[in-house]
Design goal:
Elements lengths: L3 H4 L33 E9 L4 H33 L1 H13 L8 H37 L2 E9 L3
Antiparallel strand pairs: 1-2
Helix pairs in contact: 2-4
Length: 159
Amino acid sequence: MGSAADDLSPEIAPRARVRPTRRPARPVERAAPIAPPAPAAHRRYRQTIARVDLWSVLRVSVCFYLCGMAVLLVALVVLWSVADAVGVIHHVEAFFGDLLQTKNFSFLDGAILRGALLICAVLTILEIVITVIAACFYNLFAELFGGIEISIVEDETLP
């Protein structure tokens, strides 16, 4: 027969205790306790975009495409000005004059700007119409097939 510790299973047998070494106590300034950060709470939602309001699509597309047209026209004017300052426009006019066998060929800056403005306006109107028609098709297909499902994750973290 052995001792009582031998009869116990390894889970119950007493283990050797390790004592931590003690450091000398130092005065510590007490600050406000810092709370550990709260675990982030995630809420997940599934939403379906079943219908798109055509009036909203029209307003957003008008603003978007008009801003795009303005940026494009400003970029074209700046590019034309730089090309004119460098002399590229003069060389292109001379090339077309030689090609067409005329001595006084030149581009009309105002006519080119009006043409670019007209082309941009037509393309902008066309893009707006296509965007609204695409939204109509989305509404039709969403009725048939259920629309687009999106997952929204809401993060609630405390500062």
